[in-house]
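Dear support,

We are seeing what looks like truncated structure output for some complexes. This example has two components. We would appreciate it if you could run it in full and send us the complete token output so we can diff it against ours.
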Amino acid sequence: MMEITEGSHAVAEAVRLCRPQVVSAYPITPQTHIVEALADFVANGKLDAEYITVENELSALSACVGASAAGSRTYSATTSQGLMLMAEVVFNAAGMRMPIVMSIANRAMGAPLSIWNDMQDSIALRDAGWLHFYAEDNQEATDLHFLAYKVAEDPSVQLPALVCFDGFILSHTYEPVDVLSQEQVDTYLPKYAPAERLDANDPISFGMYATPEYYLEFRYEMNEAQKKAKAAIAKYGKEFGTLFGRDYSSLIETYRLDDAETAIIAMGSVCGTVKDAIDEMREAGKKVGLLRIRVFRPFPIEEIATALATVKRIAILDKNVSLGSRGGATAIEVRDAMYGSTIPVKGYILGLGGRDIRKKDIKEIVALCEKGEGDQFIGLRKEVL
Amino acid sequence: MALAVGCRFRPGKSRDNKTGSWRVFKPIFDHEKCSKCSMCQTLCPEGCILEDADGFFDPDYAYCKGCGICAAECPKEAIAMKQEEK
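Here is the complete output from our reference environment:
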């Protein structure tokens, strides 16, 4: 049923429909509306779950790990500083192979303090072993939660998943969203049935220590599970499309890319702006297309290399920066995917800490890329430097 | 020991986890020099030096971490630490 709803509330509704048995989270801007709504659902009897209130995010995710080990479908949400406070447990949850789903309303990292949007928070934890989904709009932010549980809980994967969407830009924006019914979600997402769980009558320990003879192999198995997640996303994304009309089987989405000379690569809500800018540039005779990365982990290396094989140049937008390197995480990883190709790849850092990204910024980037210029910040206010 | 997803194990793993693999130096006991004083067994922090039927002592290499206390304290210098290559 189509509803005009705030992004956070649409996500909270999706989470409710996934029937998590345990929710533990600590409120933080701009994630607050999600967990506030879930607390209401639990209090009002609309969601049959334990809502564990905690003193901070470290405890929130720790509670989720325990609940997941006990066999519960488990949910949390956070952003920015809250995610960093969780960081130790973020790695542990993946190593213990707990299929927790956590929403990230992406926000900049301090210092300086910023409550506004960029993607530095989740990107900083890209090596932790979680699956990373990035939504373009609120429909996708909603749908990806169903897919995330389905993939995370698949026996071949057993990894936690982040569903990331831009803080404020999506979380606080009202958009029409097709909210599924409980019957529809129950058809797609059956009850969580882990092979092993904590049980006092049959004791088992999770995440024991591994000596040097075994640790390397554990990390290898996690990396193999990431690779298997590709097949699971293809399978369950297609199933979602068959049932509900929106296909998420591909890790990437392309827009007017087939005959493009300049390919723009981006993630998240900025892709809406990019598509509009592309339409205007196409009308002006420029052959520009978009490759949107929907799944950052597992990273779509082969998909990107195939989709970009015939373009003349590649411009990558990053709302994050790996300080001290050549640019942002997307540019670094796409360059790796394109290794061996002679197609020039340029990265552009923009939109940090809530700075608006306008269509003219996208056009400026395309013009720079055509001139062979890049690996730079866009929209710097030189007068304050 | 086969890998378990998420490093999950039933109780009693210390029987399977042979901590002797941590060792860099391996104590070699020379029974010719040994006076059977049992100092090595008393001081072994791992409790893995065992007495045989003849009253001689030998480490259980599955658990000996190679700390060298036995060799340092042996009054007869009957224990030599040898670098081990694996």
